[in-house]
Every structure is written in structure tokens, then in C-alpha cells.
Design goal:
The complex is a heterotrimer. By secondary structure, chain A is α/β, with parallel strands linked by helices. Helices cover 34% and strands 22% of the residues of chain A. Chain A is built from 11 helices and 12 strands. Classes of the chains: A alpha/beta, B mainly alpha, C mainly alpha.
Chain lengths: 298, 319, 282
């Protein structure tokens, strides 16, 4: 069975203000299997977001990206033209600013429906309202007509997820989707994502700095440090048998894995202590194919 | 919504009253008044006193103020000290001339500013952006009256394409003649209005392009053109509607220098002639009128903003 | 410690200049113009001597900018005109910036009621189009050098006041300012010691805008004949004179206008570079 996403040898350089290229990703390999939720953890600035932005092609304009492989659903995507649509959707950290404030919710949805499904008019409207219903928004027909600021943060993130689903993806990338939300709402959004994985047979890459979220949600974890993936393993392996010193420090710094929230920082944020260590990569021997939950495994 | 407009109106009225009071006091403080201008040195003191009484200048200042205010509200702005003509009638003749010059120039400048500003903002940091931004910086530093002189020299004297002064050739009253007189002042005004608007559109485009929703749209496969057409331009252009309110006073005072240089019979030459002959009632009438237009214009701008921006619309109607 | 922080600061300023070629033009141009203006009386330039052999002459080696109708050397007249223009610009800028900064600081720091009162005054003055306001004021006073400085300085400080007030309000919220009040420092001392230094960049940037605005206003007023009066001359009033002979002697109009444009452009460019540098730095 092929992976939904396979990225190999990904390196990204971004020139800073003085025109000097800064390497934000070093030779990164990353895979997401079918129906799997993979957590990507690390401190801020570790390259989590840049990895995801590389995949959906929204790096800053000046960034230089090279990779040896990028396969989505087994199809090579290293070279692709601009009009080419990837079956990958991405949702972002701050649902308050993710939607255009002067466009109605419906406009956002219909635009995606037209682009990805080629449906317009009343039928698109119908699909949009159904999508809102599917992500658990009450009175979807009314919400459809409202502006983003009339919705709460949690509802807006649901709208983002509805948009993401309407693009008919095989992979959903969620970049810190709950960081900006209240704790209770966080749990609801994570539940929604987990449910969708089952219902829509969706693979998910979940970027977070919250180990509590990882423990409760993910099948597999990739730990990132200074632009490298330093350790990859099942959630159990990472939590109970961490191999890489950085992973151990990360776990030690966490206020207890059940606790939600709280920014993750190792040794007072000095990731540079792990510069040398981060060159070492730990790959747990377990193949991720066996990690797929029984109910979604083919 | 109605509540908000009502509250804004209540803020505006004291402001207008204050301005009118200041203008009235300035007329009072002027070194000579209506009576001085119609009396002659050989009139007796009694005659002058009778005239003063007839004009009500013996009444308490406050009484005079309210009488004056009452007149102003009925559209009577008093009389010119120099010509003795009604100022309201004079202005009624001058303002339309200013309007037909200012409105086309302003609309052209706005269209230019929107087009070039969006274009530059979309290409932020590239050559075309630097070029447009540089041009607007130069435009901003160009004294309009100097630019007018250049235009007059080039098109009026050197190429001899257009008449350099006035609005009509004597004896001719057709549209072609008017247009020939119109071209140069129109060009000068357009260049005078455009740079500031252009800078506004450009910087607002640049800041909109940095918004998160642009990144999100990219992630959802929208092309640059789509993002620009469907999202960014709307965010940039909505606030510009409010400019219509802000531009209101330009209808009277927008072309003072340009009109003067080109001898365009609008408010500008009227105002400056009055200034040079110390015709206080005229000067202060124009001061009152333009200040009123600024205040009313700002009110209109605020209301338009509320109507146009969905975010404000909701917050305001709730509060 | 202080050297550690000042070195990159200077380097950043240099970088900001390097990325903005127009700022270099501005620096060089303004240096030349200001030096010429300051040294004008020491130079062999006389704006009033008439050269009867060369009346209305075009630019030549002897008369770089030609002569006017009375045979006066136009280069000398332009240099001396620049003295007046720059003088008005600087003094009016200082007046406007000082009033604006003072009103802004007081409004931002004092009791909300005083703040409200001052801001209503700002609103009131801002509601009269500046052209009208300045012309009316210059009519009530006798036109001339002092009047024009007072008028421009006295009626163009409102934007500065708004900016400084906003800055003061935000600085006031910072912890150390609250602490100063807590340990009993008096208000003027707090403003002088803590708020003014923080508001200084804002004031500096406003000053560059004020000077180019003041010069532009002076030029407009003098051109309209309600500014600098004969026999004194500024760039604006030179343009007024040149208007009469535009057809025969266009260079008399071209030169002062170009200089106004370049000077205003330069001050604006410096202000923008400064703003960009300050917004990234500190």
C-alpha cells in the first residue's frame, strides 16, 4: 500500500533581510499513511510550519525548495504546473484571520466548490450548506449567509474544515488548528478531526506544540528540531521509549502529557544545544503500515 | 444603525455652531464693517449712527449673532464690502464652475490611483512598484502651481494647443471651446490630486496582501489573479468609498490655486480677490462654507464606512 | 553594553540608506542647498546688482541661471530665495513640531477631560481646509516673513499632535511608566524622563513631514501674493514673478520650481527612510 504523502530530501532556504540564505529545513523525510493521523511536534521555529507549507506550495516567494521526492497518493508531484490541484487541504492556526472579513461564509465555500468540484449556482450553495452541517454547525443556512466576524473562533475553524473537505482531499494538514481556541473548543475541534478521519477516510498531518494533543489524537509522531526531523515513531514509542536526546528533553519539559496548552520549550528555549544532536535521526523500526487503526485498514 | 447616525449628527451640530460663532466673531473683529464701506467721510455722525441702527449693529453681540446665524441658515451670507453684491448669489454663480473642473479631475485621479495603486501593490518591491511609487513621491513633491506653469508654457505657449486663460473665448459659447479651456487646468488638478490617493491605495494593497486570508486562499489553490480580484481588491476598495465624503470640501476649495493661475471663474479667484481687497464677509463666508463641508463630509464618510464594511455595520448597530 | 547596542544601530541606519538610493540623493542635495544658503552672504553673489549688458539673458558661464528682466543674476537670486524658503521651512517646522508635540504629550498624559478638550480643538482646526485657514490668518495679520512663519507654524501642528498623543498613550501603558507614578515621580518628570524619549522618533518623523509641508505652503502663499512680500524673495515669490514672463523666459519659472520639488522630495525621502529604520529597529 502506498502512502498518502511521501516527502523525501526536502531542503528549504529562505533569504533573510540581508540576502543571506537561511536553511529552515534540512533534508527532511516525512510520510503520512492512509487514514493515519501524524503529529508533528517541536518548538516554534523548528520548521513544522515550513514543512507543511512546502507540501501545499505556499512558501514565501523568496524561498528556495529542493526535494528528491514528493508523492501524493503515489503520484509524483515534485514537478507540477501551477494549475495542478493537489488533493491536500490545509487549515491554519488562527481561524479569526483565515477568512476574508468582507466576504460571506458562503462565498468562501462556493469558491472552493467551484474550483475543486466544478459545481456552481444553487447546487454549489446546497453543497456548501451541507458541508457546514457536516462539520457540526447549527443552522447552516443562516451561517452560510453571515460574515466571518459574526461567528465564534471555534465555528470559524469548523468553517475552515468545511472548506478543506469541499476540496475533496486525501490529506488534511492542520497547522496548530486549536492553538488560538479555548480549551473546551479545542477538544471539540480535535474530536471533529478524528471523526472525519474515520468518516471521510482522511489522512491528517497535525502540527502542534502541545504534547497532550499528540497523546490523545495521533497514531504516529515526528519530532522536529532546528529544521530537521530528529525522531519518528508511533505515539507509544515516542512517549514511552524516546531515543533521541531532544525528544527526551521535550517530554521532560512538558507539564504532563494530559495537560493541554502551554507553549513547549526545551531548556529555556535554547534549541541550539541540540544542534549537533539534531543531525542524528532516529527511525523506529516499526513500519507505520501496521499502525493504521483496525477499522480503517483495508 | 439609525442610532449611530443620530449620535454622529449630535456630535456635528456643536462643531458647526462653534465654527459659525468663530466666523461671526472674526467678522466683528475685522477692522471695518458694512457701515464703514457704505459711509463716506462727509456724512455726519448722526447719519452714520442711524445707518448703524438700521443694520442692527447697536444690538448686543449675541442678538446680532443669532440674527446673522438665522440669515446664514436661510442661505443669506451677507454682502461683499467691495461690490455690495450678495455673497450667496456670487457663490451660486462661482461654485458650479469649480464643480465642473474639480469633479472630473478628482474622478480621474481616483481612477488612476486605484488602477496604479493596485498594480503597484500587487507587485510590491518589483520594478513596476518602485517606478509607480517613485512617480507618486515626485508628484507629491511637485508644487501644483509650478506644474501649472510648465503645462502653460508647453501646451499654451510652445505648442499653442490650448488657450491659457479663462473658461470661454469671448463671443464663443460652445462645448468645444469650453473643453479647450478645460484641458490644462483639468490636467494640473488631476496630477495634484492623484499622488496622495495613489499612495493610500498602494499601501493598503500591500498590507492586505500580508493578511492571513491571502495565504489561506493560496493554500486552497486560488490563483494570484483570483485572490486579487475576489479578495484583496475588495478589501482595498471598500474603504475608498468613504473618500467620497472626505472629498466633499474639494467642491469649493479644491482648485483655488489652479483656478487662479488659469483664470477659471470659480471660487478660487473670487476668494483671492476678496483676500487682497480685505473683503471680510466674503473671506469668512467661504471659510464657513468650507469648514461646514469638511464636517458634513466627514459625517458622510463615517456613515458610508458603516454602510460598506460588514464588520463595523454589525458592531455599531449593536452598540 | 552601550557600544554593543550602538554599533548595530549605526549599521542598520547605513543599511537603510544603502537600500534607499533616493535617501542618498536627499542627503547630498540637502547638504549642498543648506550649505549654499548658510554661506550665501560670504560668497561673491549679489542678488540685487543689475547687469545692464545682460538683461533677460539665458543661462551662461557668467550667469549660471541667466538673469531676470532687470539684469539681476538669477543664480544669486535663487540662492538668496532659498535662504528665505529654508528659513521659513525650518522655523515653521520647529513651531509646528513644538506645539504639536506639546499638545500631544499633554493630551496623552493629562486628565481625560483635558485630553478631550485639546482633541476637540485639534478637530476644530482640522475641519477648516488648510489653504483657507492659512490665507485667512495671513490676511488678518500683516503679510511678511514673521507672519508667514507664525501662520504656518500655528496652523499645521494638528497631525503632529495626533501622532504624539497616540504614541504617548501607548507608552503610558508600559509598566515602567506606571511604576514611576507609583514611586511618586511628578508628572513633568515622568513625561520628560520616560515618555518624551520614547515619543522622540515619532516627533522626528513628524518633523520631516512638517518641514516639507511648511515649505510647500510658503511657496503656495508667496506664489499667490499673500506670503513673502517684495523686496524679499523666496522660491515661491520668484515663481510668482516668473509667471509674468513665462513665455519669454521659461527658465526663470523652471529653476525655483525644480528646487522646491527637489527639496520637498528630499525631506520626504529622509522622513520615509527614518520611519522605515525606526520601525524595524530598537
Amino acid at each position: 500500500m502506498t502512502d498518502v504523502l511521501r516527502v523525501a530530501g526536502l531542503t528549504v532556504d529562505i533569504p533573510n533581510r540581508d540576502g543571506v540564505a537561511v536553511r529552515v529545513l534540512h533534508d527532511v523525510d516525512f510520510t503520512v499513511g492512509h487514514g493515519e493521523i501524524v503529529g508533528v511536534v517541536g518548538e516554534s521555529g523548528s520548521g513544522k510550519t515550513m514543512l507543511m507549507r512546502s507540501v501545499v506550495d505556499i512558501l514565501p516567494e523568496t524561498a528556495i525548495r529542493t526535494w528528491t521526492a514528493c508523492e501524493v497518493d503515489g503520484v509524483d508531484r515534485t514537478t507540477r504546473s501551477r494549475g495542478d490541484r493537489l488533493p491536500v487541504s490545509m487549515i491554519f492556526q488562527d481561524p479569526m484571520t483565515s477568512l476574508n472579513p468582507v466576504r460571506r461564509i458562503g462565498y468562501h465555500l462556493v469558491e472552493v466548490i467551484r474550483r475543486f468540484q466544478g459545481v456552481t449556482g444553487g447546487r454549489a450553495r446546497q453543497l456548501g450548506i451541507e458541508a457546514l452541517d457536516q462539520v457540526g454547525i447549527d443552522d447552516p443556512a443562516r451561517r452560510f449567509r453571515q460574515y466571518p466576524h459574526e461567528l465564534s473562533g471555534g465555528m470559524r475553524q469548523r468553517v475552515m474544515i468545511a472548506m478543506a473537505l469541499l476540496a475533496k482531499p486525501s490529506l488534511l494538514i492542520a497547522d496548530e488548528p486549536t492553538t488560538a481556541l479555548d480549551v473546551t473548543v479545542q477538544a471539540q475541534i480535535l474530536d471533529l478531526i478524528t471523526d472525519l478521519r474515520r468518516e471521510a477516510r482522511l489522512a491528517v498531518a497535525l502540527v502542534t506544540h502541545d504534547l497532550g494533543v499528540v497523546a490523545g489524537t495521533c497514531d504516529r509522531v515526528a519530532v522536529m528540531c532546528r529544521g530537521r526531523v530528529v525522531e519518528v515513531g508511533t505515539t507509544d514509542e515516542i512517549f514511552y521509549d524516546p531515543q533521541h536526546p531532544y525528544t527526551r528533553a521535550l517530554l521532560a519539559a512538558a507539564p504532563g502529557t494530559e495537560a493541554a496548552g502551554g507553549s513547549l520549550t526545551v531548556s529555556g528555549g535554547v534549541a541550539s544545544e541540540w544542534v549537533d544532536a539534531s543531525a542524528v535521526r532516529v527511525q523506529h523500526s516499526t513500519t507505520h503500515a501496521s499502525l493504521v487503526p483496525a477499522e480503517v485498514a483495508p | 444603525m439609525a442610532l449611530y447616525i443620530g449620535r454622529r449628527l449630535l456630535q456635528v451640530i456643536p462643531m458647526l455652531l462653534l465654527i459659525s460663532l468663530v466666523v461671526f466673531l472674526m467678522i466683528q473683529a475685522a477692522p471695518y464693517d458694512v457701515v464703514d464701506s457704505i459711509t463716506t467721510p462727509n456724512m455726519s455722525a448722526e447719519t452714520i449712527e442711524i445707518i448703524r441702527q438700521r443694520y442692527g449693529l447697536d444690538d448686543p453681540v449675541l442678538v446680532q449673532y443669532f440674527r446673522w446665524l438665522g440669515n446664514v441658515l436661510q442661505g443669506d451670507l451677507g454682502y461683499s464690502l467691495v461690490s455690495q453684491y450678495s455673497i450667496s448669489a456670487d457663490l451660486a454663480a462661482k461654485i458650479p464652475n469649480t464643480v465642473i473642473l474639480v469633479v472630473p479631475a478628482y474622478l480621474t485621479a481616483l481612477a488612476l490611483a486605484i488602477g496604479l495603486g493596485l498594480w503597484a501593490g500587487a507587485n510590491h518591491g518589483r520594478r513596476i512598484d518602485r517606478f509607480i511609487d517613485g512617480a507618486s513621491a515626485i508628484g507629491l513633491a511637485t508644487p501644483p502651481f509650478w506644474f501649472a506653469l510648465l503645462v502653460i508654457y508647453l501646451f499654451g505657449y510652445y505648442l499653442n494647443w490650448f488657450p491659457i486663460i479663462g473658461m470661454h473665448t469671448v463671443g464663443q459659447d460652445d462645448l468645444i471651446d469650453l473643453l479647450r479651456h478645460f484641458v490644462m487646468p483639468y490636467l494640473v488638478l488631476t496630477v495634484a490630486f492623484a499622488p496622495e490617493l495613489l499612495r493610500y491605495v498602494r499601501s493598503s494593497t500591500v498590507s492586505q496582501l500580508r493578511e492571513d486570508y491571502v495565504l489561506v486562499q493560496r493554500a486552497f489553490g486560488a490563483s494570484r489573479a483570483e485572490i486579487f480580484r475576489n479578495h484583496v481588491s475588495r478589501n482595498v476598495l471598500l474603504p475608498i468609498v468613504t473618500q467620497i465624503g472626505v472629498a466633499l470640501p474639494l467642491l469649493v476649495t479644491g482648485a483655488i490655486i489652479t483656478e487662479t493661475i488659469f483664470g477659471w471663474p470659480g471660487v478660487g479667484p473670487y476668494f483671492l480677490t476678496a483676500t487682497k481687497s480685505l473683503d471680510y464677509p466674503v473671506i469668512l463666508a467661504i471659510l464657513l462654507l468650507s469648514a461646514t463641508l469638511v464636517i458634513v463630509g466627514n459625517l458622510i464618510a463615517d456613515i458610508l464606512y458603516v454602510l460598506v464594511d460588514p464588520r463595523v455595520r454589525l458592531e455599531r448597530s449593536r452598540s | 553594553m552601550s557600544t554593543l547596542t550602538t554599533v548595530p544601530r549605526e549599521r542598520r541606519l547605513r543599511d537603510a540608506l544603502a537600500r534607499a538610493p533616493q535617501a542618498w540623493f536627499a542627503l547630498i542635495f540637502l547638504t549642498v542647498v543648506i550649505l549654499l544658503s548658510l554661506l550665501a552672504p560670504l560668497l561673491p553673489l549679489d542678488p540685487d546688482t543689475t547687469d545692464l549688458d545682460a538683461m533677460s539673458a539665458p543661462p551662461s558661464l557668467e550667469h549660471w541661471f541667466g538673469t531676470d528682466q532687470l539684469g539681476r543674476d538669477y543664480f544669486a537670486r535663487v540662492v538668496f530665495g532659498g535662504r528665505i524658503s529654508l528659513l521659513v521651512g525650518f522655523l515653521a517646522m520647529i513651531a509646528a513640531t513644538a506645539i504639536g508635540a506639546l499638545v500631544g504629550l499633554v493630551a496623552g498624559f493629562a486628565h481625560p477631560r483635558i485630553d478631550n478638550l485639546l482633541m476637540r480643538l485639534v478637530d476644530f482646526l482640522s475641519s477648516i481646509p488648510w489653504m483657507i485657514l492659512v490665507i485667512v490668518a495671513s490676511v488678518f495679520l500683516r503679510p511678511g516673513l514673521v507672519t508667514i512663519i507664525i501662520v504656518i507654524g500655528g496652523f499645521t501642528w494638528m497631525t503632529t499632535a495626533r501622532l504624539v498623543r497616540a504614541e504617548t498613550l501607548s507608552v503610558k501603558e508600559r509598566a515602567y511608566v506606571g511604576y514611576s507614578g507609583y514611586i511618586g515621580e511628578r508628572a513633568p518628570r515622568i513625561v520628560g524622563r520616560h515618555i518624551l524619549p520614547d515619543a522622540l522618533p515619532t516627533i522626528l518623523v513628524a518633523a520631516t513631514t512638517n518641514i516639507s509641508q511648511a515649505m510647500m505652503t510658503e511657496a503656495s502663499l508667496s506664489f499667490l501674493g499673500v506670503g513673502i512680500q517684495q523686496p524679499m524673495a523666496s522660491w515661491g515669490s520668484l515663481l510668482q514673478t516668473a509667471q509674468g514672463s513665462l513665455q519669454q523666459l521659461p527658465h526663470l519659472a523652471l529653476i525655483p520650481g525644480l528646487l522646491i520639488m527637489a527639496t520637498v522630495f528630499s525631506f520626504n525621502a529622509l522622513g520615509n527612510t527614518l520611519r522605515r529604520y525606526l520601525s524595524r529597529g530598537a
